[in-house]
């Protein structure tokens, strides 16, 4: 069971002991991401995340930082999303104090040297090239751009090449000082740790200024007709994402949408995996996912297929969307989906890093924190009527969004198909 304590400056500390594990994870999450950016500084959250690993006064270089955890076989990394940024280190429990010190050091004492900024600028520009040249990775960015348009929710988290090329040290300092404040920070310890480790975390993060809590402007998808966005790129395969707006984390139907996603394309025995891949051999990759943010989300099915098979694959998915919205699902399908989600959850949460992420993500998004057992109960409570009602609400003509990356894409043919 987790415990939560709030420091005087607003930093939230969650501790999740795991007596049976030999590992320890410290995860620190900050409530800032690309949705907190402007058009002019889009990409700075992600760039700043990189800069925390380039040296502190105590560990002056990236090599010195990496060596500290490499020498004990530890893992450390960071990630940036639209709504939060996270930093973690995972080590054997006997090295917990080292992991705490390293993560605290980078977040409070990074130097942000100009020479390192210039070097990392090139790294991030190549990272952008990596995403743009990998349709499987990039298709969801194109889908969100299609769905949310020219808004922070629709911009790429990694930013634009133009912005990345012009950020200067003063920009990073301003963003760091303005966003990395106590009320925006949650720290979590999971696995095998001691009271000394908890005390050390408190002492480190007590030095952070309390500041003001970041705010997000609510966004709503205003859509009156189907949308199609095509990125023409010479590839042997066309990758597309076909979906609809759904629900945010706080919505009462979020869990029902998650179950619907599993039934449609969440596993190798799901409806769309069987219909698109197994029965017709149209694709290797077929997957339905449900993404949630604070105040919105979406359900989408991603497929990679040949350009001449794209229209056929889109038609099959739309037929299944229409069918499930009108007929619902069977009791056997719902039971299997519930067991699938609960089984995957059990597998994931065996490790200290996944368990830390489970609690911290909920905390940083200001969601009422649920233990895994509580979440499983919520999944179990979803009824057949909930699935049919949710499918009927989200699968409507004026909510359809299709994003495509590929070559020889027949735009007019796809436009004609976008109806239920």
UniProtKB/TrEMBL annotation:
<dbReference type="InterPro" id="IPR001431">
    <property type="entry name" value="Pept_M16_Zn_BS"/>
</dbReference>
<dbReference type="Pfam" id="PF00675">
    <property type="entry name" value="Peptidase_M16"/>
</dbReference>
<dbReference type="InterPro" id="IPR007863">
    <property type="entry name" value="Peptidase_M16_C"/>
</dbReference>
<protein>
    <recommendedName>
        <fullName>Peptidase M16</fullName>
    </recommendedName>
</protein>
<feature type="domain" description="Peptidase M16 C-terminal">
    <location>
        <begin position="167"/>
        <end position="339"/>
    </location>
</feature>
<dbReference type="GO" id="GO:0004222">
    <property type="term" value="F:metalloendopeptidase activity"/>
</dbReference>
<dbReference type="GO" id="GO:0006508">
    <property type="term" value="P:proteolysis"/>
</dbReference>
<dbReference type="InterPro" id="IPR011249">
    <property type="entry name" value="Metalloenz_LuxS/M16"/>
</dbReference>
<dbReference type="InterPro" id="IPR011765">
    <property type="entry name" value="Pept_M16_N"/>
</dbReference>
<dbReference type="Pfam" id="PF05193">
    <property type="entry name" value="Peptidase_M16_C"/>
</dbReference>
<comment type="similarity">
    <text>Belongs to the peptidase M16 family.</text>
</comment>
<dbReference type="GO" id="GO:0046872">
    <property type="term" value="F:metal ion binding"/>
</dbReference>
<feature type="domain" description="Peptidase M16 N-terminal">
    <location>
        <begin position="16"/>
        <end position="160"/>
    </location>
</feature>
<dbReference type="InterPro" id="IPR050361">
    <property type="entry name" value="MPP/UQCRC_Complex"/>
</dbReference>
